[in-house]
Amino acid sequence: MAELVGNLLVAQSGGPTAVINASVAGVIQEAGKHECIEEIYGGLNGILGILNEELIDINEEKAKTIEGLKYTPAAGLGTCRYKIDFKKKPEQASKDMDRLFEVFKAHNIRFFFYAGGNDSQDTAHKIHEEAIKRGHEMRVIGVPKTIDNDLPHTDHCPGYGSVIKYNAATVMEVAFDVSSMATDDGSCCLIEVMGRAAGWIAAGTVLAKRLESDAPHIILMPEIPLNEAVFLAKVKETVASHKYCIVVVGEGLKNAAGEEIGADKSRLDAFGHPVLSGAAERLAEIIQGKINLKTRTVKLGYAQRAAEHYASLTDSQEAVACGEAAVKAAVSGQSGLMVKIVRTQTSPYKWTTGLQPLGDIANVEHFLPRDWVTEDGFLPNQKFIEYARPLIEGEVKVPTEGGLPKFAVLEKVRIDKQLPPHVK
Amino acid sequence: MAELVGNLLVAQSGGPTAVINASVAGVIQEAGKHECIEEIYGGLNGILGILNEELIDINEEKAKTIEGLKYTPAAGLGTCRYKIDFKKKPEQASKDMDRLFEVFKAHNIRFFFYAGGNDSQDTAHKIHEEAIKRGHEMRVIGVPKTIDNDLPHTDHCPGYGSVIKYNAATVMEVAFDVSSMATDDGSCCLIEVMGRAAGWIAAGTVLAKRLESDAPHIILMPEIPLNEAVFLAKVKETVASHKYCIVVVGEGLKNAAGEEIGADKSRLDAFGHPVLSGAAERLAEIIQGKINLKTRTVKLGYAQRAAEHYASLTDSQEAVACGEAAVKAAVSGQSGLMVKIVRTQTSPYKWTTGLQPLGDIANVEHFLPRDWVTEDGFLPNQKFIEYARPLIEGEVKVPTEGGLPKFAVLEKVRIDKQLPPHVK
């Protein structure tokens, strides 16, 4: 097989994380080592920008900016939630796919890397298949990214370690605050974290517990339906023992009927999922209404996935390695794969990267195993703790300026467009 | 005047901060240098614990634990919101005051330090006056503490620098996230911060702005009534320019009728103030309903005042100095005063401590001056920025264990009770 020579395109998709830029840095820095890669381009706002031929020249960026991506949250190249949906919008999807390949051909893109979660790996998979169908020789490798930790086949996802590190630290700090105010009246604080279907993020806050009596006292995961009476009894019991109770709730918590506790069904996002805003607020109403306990809420929202200032160094290093591994796989002639993290040992923690066919990843969600949660369903157990603990080790060092983070910002020098505008 | 010799009692009151323990460390470490101070006691849960004679022996604590209070959030001694209220509950207040002095006499308390905000300085003031009236020679010094920054006479309050540092970093990170997702559809993120009456906390997030175009784009402060139409126009204008808009809202934001936007009047706290839970949620409903813009919310709640992991070193050092200054004032024979921070120079920032009669402090609230805010009321101006900028400089170093903060925890060895139980 003759060596493939051409340009590289890297893009980011879906909800950002604290380390998705670290993966892009890994792709770029590794790409610089391979002669078969001629130009290095970044696609702005994922597929959406590529459709509009919005490409930037990474070689115009300073090396220190690329290095700085390792401590910069969010998607430096911009991201999108645009989906090429052959099922729901087949005509648009065909048009989009034609256009993507026009862009790939116009810019001689032979190496394509897409960092994202389930939907994005699905997109990468389709592009890989279309490249073969269309006879456009191109290596397509997915780079895993999601705070939700719900991709299958990888031990865990880059982005996950950082979100649970920040959330666990926050739970610990809030618990210090609430317990220091706790008098005989008792009080409860509900902390809402992300996680629509999978409870990985909520579960991760268990790492804040060093003693049995430490917070969080209850973790409500979306996989386990809420039994209101049992939950209220557990809150009362906790307050009786400790004078306070810290509850972590995943935003997608459901009742026995499978309805989301905090869903506002009148609001839908781009993928048609209901916007969830109020699991903690809803539970606070229930607690105050039914057991008359002083209750406060915290909703971390986007802050948790962007919290670079307390990101996990382990997570960041793994994210970089995933980007590097993607490039190595592509230049060695592989395509249609996602990089995965393989745990080779838990204590002391050791890991390496591997590769998995994109077809095994796309649209498959990986949930918290039921036997990693205590029988009453209110806390993850030792199996989970052993799994999660190594992922939060170490702190990413973020430089500061005037007492605040100094993140890297790309110059984004545009590549001249070769094509007429995209007609949607 | 013969030198006063006896025991010291230090206690904490009101909502905790990231640095109220640093002030207690300052009191304790300074006290150790003065022979006139015999025993050093801590009162658990403020006045409430002192009424119940719940005192601990600080000399039983390890020196490294006391030093560790400088990087430990919340109230290490516990706190309370109990008020000795001669106006509303004169009988209970008289009984409580009698009891306090029984406790002071039983334990030969001659130096009393109370760290807290407005209500707590009021309590300290009453104790000072009662001590004179009752002929119990005792030095009473208030140590300022409040994230709200609403105490008069002091340049700013310990606790304030840390909360705005963390909040500004959070706004910066959330803005990176939201802007990286911003496409032509536009989006808005509302970040709710504390501040019931005063907008100091909300205003402080302006420090996240390095460029005119940076977030936060709009800051809604409780002192300035919301004009909904003007606000919505400003959001639309911001989204038109930047594709996204970050709004910071103080929890106590009011409409033109003076009603709190997010108040739930059915819930009252111990001081009879309505519990505020929903300014951001309420505004999100308005934005989505009236201009159909995708909107998300973040509610930092207790997390912001407990965020030791990104606390300001300047703030922490000032908090320690306030504790030390309180002890120095007391041993030099002064009483009935609160320590204040005096700014002697803004650039480069220089400060010292001073003293102010407690009577000048108690129950006086200090608001953000209107001429520190732009004419349209949506952002603090350069005067505020120059004031606030030095307060967030430097980071408190928190040791970690297993990737999470390792805070100090007091042993809390109890002093034997000398009195019968307190009858309320």
UniProtKB/TrEMBL annotation, chains A, B:
<feature type="site" description="Important for catalytic activity and substrate specificity; stabilizes the transition state when the phosphoryl donor is PPi; prevents ATP from binding by mimicking the alpha-phosphate group of ATP">
    <location>
        <position position="119"/>
    </location>
</feature>
<keyword id="KW-0808">Transferase</keyword>
<keyword id="KW-0324">Glycolysis</keyword>
<dbReference type="InterPro" id="IPR050929">
    <property type="entry name" value="PFKA"/>
</dbReference>
<feature type="domain" description="Phosphofructokinase">
    <location>
        <begin position="8"/>
        <end position="329"/>
    </location>
</feature>
<dbReference type="InterPro" id="IPR011404">
    <property type="entry name" value="PPi-PFK"/>
</dbReference>
<feature type="binding site">
    <location>
        <begin position="194"/>
        <end position="196"/>
    </location>
    <ligand>
        <name>substrate</name>
    </ligand>
</feature>
<keyword id="KW-0418">Kinase</keyword>
<dbReference type="InterPro" id="IPR035966">
    <property type="entry name" value="PKF_sf"/>
</dbReference>
<dbReference type="InterPro" id="IPR000023">
    <property type="entry name" value="Phosphofructokinase_dom"/>
</dbReference>
<feature type="binding site">
    <location>
        <begin position="302"/>
        <end position="305"/>
    </location>
    <ligand>
        <name>substrate</name>
    </ligand>
</feature>
<comment type="subunit">
    <text>Homodimer.</text>
</comment>
<feature type="binding site">
    <location>
        <position position="15"/>
    </location>
    <ligand>
        <name>diphosphate</name>
    </ligand>
</feature>
<keyword id="KW-0479">Metal-binding</keyword>
<dbReference type="GO" id="GO:0046872">
    <property type="term" value="F:metal ion binding"/>
</dbReference>
<keyword id="KW-0460">Magnesium</keyword>
<dbReference type="GO" id="GO:0003872">
    <property type="term" value="F:6-phosphofructokinase activity"/>
</dbReference>
<feature type="binding site">
    <location>
        <position position="251"/>
    </location>
    <ligand>
        <name>substrate</name>
    </ligand>
</feature>
<feature type="binding site">
    <location>
        <begin position="146"/>
        <end position="148"/>
    </location>
    <ligand>
        <name>substrate</name>
    </ligand>
</feature>
<feature type="binding site">
    <location>
        <position position="118"/>
    </location>
    <ligand>
        <name>Mg(2+)</name>
    </ligand>
</feature>
<dbReference type="GO" id="GO:0047334">
    <property type="term" value="F:diphosphate-fructose-6-phosphate 1-phosphotransferase activity"/>
</dbReference>
<dbReference type="GO" id="GO:0006002">
    <property type="term" value="P:fructose 6-phosphate metabolic process"/>
</dbReference>
<dbReference type="InterPro" id="IPR022953">
    <property type="entry name" value="ATP_PFK"/>
</dbReference>
<comment type="function">
    <text>Catalyzes the phosphorylation of D-fructose 6-phosphate, the first committing step of glycolysis. Uses inorganic phosphate (PPi) as phosphoryl donor instead of ATP like common ATP-dependent phosphofructokinases (ATP-PFKs), which renders the reaction reversible, and can thus function both in glycolysis and gluconeogenesis. Consistently, PPi-PFK can replace the enzymes of both the forward (ATP-PFK) and reverse (fructose-bisphosphatase (FBPase)) reactions.</text>
</comment>
<comment type="similarity">
    <text>Belongs to the phosphofructokinase type A (PFKA) family. PPi-dependent PFK group II subfamily. Clade 'B2' sub-subfamily.</text>
</comment>
<comment type="pathway">
    <text>Carbohydrate degradation; glycolysis; D-glyceraldehyde 3-phosphate and glycerone phosphate from D-glucose: step 3/4.</text>
</comment>
<keyword id="KW-0963">Cytoplasm</keyword>
<protein>
    <recommendedName>
        <fullName>Pyrophosphate--fructose 6-phosphate 1-phosphotransferase</fullName>
        <ecNumber>2.7.1.90</ecNumber>
    </recommendedName>
</protein>
<feature type="site" description="Important for catalytic activity; stabilizes the transition state when the phosphoryl donor is PPi">
    <location>
        <position position="145"/>
    </location>
</feature>
<dbReference type="Pfam" id="PF00365">
    <property type="entry name" value="PFK"/>
</dbReference>
<feature type="active site" description="Proton acceptor">
    <location>
        <position position="148"/>
    </location>
</feature>
<dbReference type="GO" id="GO:0005737">
    <property type="term" value="C:cytoplasm"/>
</dbReference>
